[in-house]
Structure formats: C-alpha cells, structure tokens
Amino acid sequence: MQQGTLMRKVKSKNWKKQRYFKLQDDCMTIWYQSKRTGKIESAFSISDVETVREGHQSEVLQSVAEEFPPERCFTIVFYGRRGNLDLIAASAEEAQCWVQGLHQLIEPRSFSLTSALVSCTWIRDWFQKGDKNKDGRMNFKEVQRLLKMMNVDMNEDHALQLFQDADKSESGTLEGEEFVLFYKALTQREEVLSLFQDFSEDGKKLTLLELVDFLRQEQLEDEGTEQLAMELIDKYEPSETVRARHVLSADGFLMYLCSPDGSIFNPQHRALWQDMSQPLCHYFISSSHNTYLIEDQIRGQSSIEGYIRALKRGCRCLEVDCWDGPNGEPVVYHGHTFTSKIPFREVVSTLGKYAFKSRAESSYAVPSQGLKGVGGVGPQECGIPRDSKSHGGDGHPRVPSCLSPTLQELKHKILLKGKKIGRLEDTLDGPGDEAPDVSDDDNGAEAEEERRRAKVGETQHSPALQKDKESLAQSLSDCVIYCKSVSFRGFQEARSHSRPSEMSSFAEAKARKLIRDAGNEFVRHNAWQLTRIYPSGMRTDSSNYSPQEMWNVGCQIVALNFQTAGMEMDLCDGLFSQNGRCGYVLKPSFMRDEETIFDPSDPSSREGPGPITLTIQVISGQQLPKVANSKDGAVIDPLVRVEIHGVPVDQAHQETKYIENNGFNPRWNETLQFQLHVPELALVRFVVEDYDKTSRNDFVGQFTLAFANIKPGYRHIHLLSKDGTSIPPSSLFVHIRITE
Description:
Blueprint: E1 5-12, E2 15-23, E3 29-34, E4 40-45, E5 49-54, H1 59-63, E6 73-78, E7 85-88, H2 92-106, H3 121-130, H4 140-149, H5 156-166, H6 177-186, H7 190-199, E8 205-206, H8 208-217, H9 225-236, H10 240-244, E9 248-249, H11 250-258, E10 283-288, H12 304-312, E11 318-320, E12 322-323, E13 331-332, E14 342-343, H13 344-354, E15 366-370, H14 379-382, E16 414-418, H15 424-429, H16 444-455, H17 463-471, H18 474-479, E17 483-485, H19 491-497, E18 502-507, H20 508-525, E19 530-534, H21 548-551, E20 557-560, H22 567-576, E21 584-586, E22 612-622, E23 638-645, E24 652-655, E25 667-676, E26 683-690, E27 698-706, E28 713-720, E29 726-739
Parallel strand pairs: 10-20, 11-15, 15-16, 16-17, 17-18, 18-19, 19-20
Antiparallel strand pairs: 1-2, 1-7, 2-3, 3-4, 5-6, 6-7, 8-9, 10-21, 12-13, 13-14, 22-25, 22-29, 23-24, 23-26, 26-27, 28-29
Helix pairs in contact: 3-4, 5-6, 8-9, 9-11, 12-13
C-alpha cells in the first residue's frame, strides 16, 4: 500500500483538489491533508469502508470520464449514509496499489483461533483511541480516559487493579500483549462462565457428552447432536491440545456463543431455504419508492447511487420515473418537482452492472416500476438491452406459456411495470379484434371512459386513446409483460375481468381503507395478483409508513424510501435478511390460497395450531456504542425494548429497567413474555436505548428478524446501527423459549 500519495479528490466536474493520502502505521486509519496548507482535513477508519469501486463507477467520476481514464479512477464507498470519496490517482499503477491494498484491508481476514477473541479490529481501534500521545503504550490516566470512551463507569480502585494485573513488566504502562490481557480481563463474561460451569463437571471444560447435553437441553438441537458437538469443537476451540481431546474450554464455549452458530438468527435460514418455484404473487418482494432519490421528494438529489445502494441491500423492485429530456434523451427524476435529473442511460447501465451482481441468490427477477411520461422512445433508444436471456431471436419477448410464471422461470430477467397497449395475449399472438387498453393506475377516470366507449364500438375514434397510443412506443409497450398497470375498480371487478399479469397500485391511505373494509378480500386478491403500495404524497421528507399492515394482507410490493432510516426500514431489512437476502420471502400458505378465509383483524380465521408463547430473558449487553454526539465522558444508561410487529392483536412491546452508567457490560436478567396468534407474520425487533428521564430516550442499536428465523436457547443478538450496518462487537445475550 502506498503511503503519502498525492491524488485528486473530486466532488464535481469543476471541483478537483489535490490531497495527500496516507495509511497510518496501524493499517487501520487513512488521513488526507491539503497539498497547499498541509492541514489534515479528515480521517477515516478502514472499518468504515464497505467497498472500493474501480473506474468511472460514480456520477462524479463519469462527469470527468473524458478527462481522466478509468484506470486512474476509483471510489471509496462507506457504510451507512456517509458520502462516497471519489479519487483520481496520478497513474494506473498507483490507483491499482490503493485499490488492491484497500480490498485486502477490508475483506474479512482469518485470525488464528488462539487470538480470535482478542485480536479483532476493534481492539486495535480502542488502543489507538486510548494512546493519546501516540507512543505505543498507555499509562493509567490514558486507561481511565479509554474506559469512559468505552462506555465504562468503573470504580477507580478496580480499574487500577486490572491495570496492575496486566502490567507484567511493571513499567507503569501497558503495551502489546499487556493491553490484550487488560482487555481480556475487562471483557470477562461472568454470566457465560456461570452457564458453562452448570454443564461442566470440573468447571474447566465441557466433554463431548456434556456439550451434547447443553445442545439438547438448552439449544433444543435434536438432530445429529453428537456430530454438531464435534463440529463446534473443531470450529471454535482455540487450543489445539484441547481440541484433540474432543473437549471445549470456556474460551471455546464463549466463541461458539458469539459466533453465527450461537446467533438468534437461524444460520440455516441465512441461505436460500424457501420454495422458489411458486408464482411471483406468492412472495413478499423487497421494494423501494423513488429509488433514484437519496434525499427528500421535492428538492432532493437524484443519483444512480440510490439504485446501487438499494440493490446491494437486496431490493428487487426499483422505481424508474422516466420523462422526456432534452435532445430526445430520456431522464429520470421525480416529475413536476425540483429534484435533480439523471440520464436514463446511466440508470439502465447501473441496473445492468448491479441487478444480478451482489450474490448468487440475487439472480431472481427485478421488477422495475415507472417509465412515466416517456414519449415515442423505444427500449433500444433508451438503452434497454434485448438480450437472449429475456427475448427471442426475432426481437419479440420470450415469455413462459403461463400468464402467472414462477419465480424460478423469471431468473435473470428484468420485468417492467408500466402502461401497455393491449393485452399480454396480443403481444404473444399478434393484434386481435379487442380494443387496445393503455390504462394504468394514474389515469383511472380516463381509462374508465375508454372502457365505456369500447363497449359501444367507439374506442378506435377516441382522441384520448389516440394520444396515448402516439405517446407510448409499441416496442416499449411490448416490454411490459407480467406487470401491466391497471386501475383498481373493486375486488369483484378484478376477480371477474383482471389477469394475473396485471397489477394495481395504491397509496398507503387507500390501502389502509381496503384493509379496514375488506381485509379477507384483499388477502384473496393478493393470492393471485400483484399489488403495489407506495407512500403518501404528503411525505415530502421521504419518511415511511409501516410496511407490516400491508404485509398482513399479503401485499407483495410494499415500496419504502430506502434512504430514510428508522423502524420501518428496520422491519424491511428484518424480513428480507433471510432466504439468502434474495429479496423474495414466501408468504404463509394461508395467504397463497385464493379461497382463504384469513383476515388479519380476526386471527381465529388462520388455519393451523393455536397461539404460541414467546419468552425472552434479556440477560446482558456487551460493549454498547455511545450515543452519537454525546458529551466527552458521558456513559449511557441502557434499557432493552422488545417489540412485536404483526397482525393487530399481536402488536406489543415490553422493556427492561435501565442500568445506570454502564454501556460496557450491563446485566438486566429480566424476562419478557408475548403471545403470538399469527406467528407466521410476526417480526421481532430488539431496541437498545439510552434512558433519559427529562427527554426522549436516545437510540443506541437494534436488531430485527422474522419470528420464523428465531433459534431458541442461549443466543447472542448482534446489534445494528440506525443505518442497518453492523456495529461490532456490540451485542445482547438472551435466552429464548417458544411454547405452544
């Protein structure tokens, strides 16, 4: 990795400043300073970096593409909502040196098992933060400051004792392995050690049979338990000698509990685990609203970054509001507002790069909503490819014979939702005698008038229809196959005249009214046809509505503003974090039956076993983060709130008491209990807050998952930030029981 490299930092086509970039000796921090003043402008940790993109893979670098070749350009992408850092190196060789070096630093590295507990990134981070004078060692005063930074309000005598115990050299300072000893003593988990000793006869190790007893009795592992015990020992026991004896030490036991195998999230559900051969309408689909916006709905910035972030987050339904632009070039923006515009070509190019890129499971279809206001522009003029995967060699769409294809049949395809001239059968068989229909959800009155006229043979003379036919290119219409926009005129009308290849959209208020007035009919409708829900136009700040009430009636495409953090996006991320993060989650069987009697307002209408009881013992927390922008030396007073999101009767929340001045290792040991009538639709959200008796509590961290993905037993919950990114090593330790 180069150090002290002079590169151009680019913010726009006209803003390119030279800065010196340097990787610090700790290999964890990069700072950059002004070439002119020598002043350090900023610094960031390698742990803040999500990925590095080579070439012109940002709008800023695309704007200077004619001036600088792609070999010299790269983009550093940060977690959360921090802006990207676009850089231009002096040569292709320097660019490659930085790109490859950053990739090596941010990719997960395999630590030896012996040091895995103490050699993680965050320990080095803490040492760097505590070593104020940067001499590579820490005196007791620096340790005291570090404890405050780590959210620990510890008795000074106890802190001094830990310090002296770790100071093996008796130098009055801690360095290297001495700091590791101090950290290990500080993070001693008494509650885990007590659990370990409950199953260990000698209190020092778990034999294979003792570990099997623990797995069966507490973790409720009832299949292949002996084989699982052997695998856990091989995987998590740090001592080769102990491992060879097929036993597990206390350190190995802790490593297991802190690992994905000890997580509350069932590891088998991380990968694809559901039936993917059902029709598209049988799945909940991760969906975004106005995907191009990364700020508000009126004056916000439109950016291809919105598409990249959404796709990498597992989103499968994107919105592309396409309008006529200058010189016949279509643009994407929030129509009739002051939001900025981006060329449609750039959006299509971005979808081509990222739609099926992030993981193998992302090969399932990407429905795209939008194409509003496009004039006589066909798909090829817009840059929509007609490749062999989605189209036949004759230029016509290749379509499975069924009007309701399976998700498996739609792999590697992009589906367009929009207006269409005529029916799907017309596209497949050629024009027939039936009058063309170009209706969608935005022109209900006009479409109704056209249908009325069609019944009396006047359609071909309709000026409104002729205008729509002129403004919608036939070739673009032909691309709309399974997601034709139609106006909604009632569930009975839809059942009698609509097709599975058609879909309607509802604003959130309209959807809520349908849920109140006809919950069961809504569930039945969604068993055979797609429905899209979108935020109210009053949400100009890009706020979100709760998606849960829409999922309760089986709505598949529940579009949210992905750029806005909060409970609503936590629920979305929580539901779609399963099944390989492919963006599709199979609906419960009672929501896939067109004759279902299920109504979310009446849980007794659900077919299946009765209510279940979820019991959660919140035991402890570990290294909880400090509240953003808190005062120096402030230590949080954490509490845990558990929320149930589901059908109305299951909606509930309970919380623990707060623990005063301890964000490092708080102990609650409190039991919370919930009854779930429709567990198949329930999401469980764990929230940690900093208690404040005079004002609203501050957010600390959260984790949300579907009830179906919970593993019972002693489990760790690895907390996420408000942006949904990991905040290691912050976690909760809980005990879960599920009973009927």
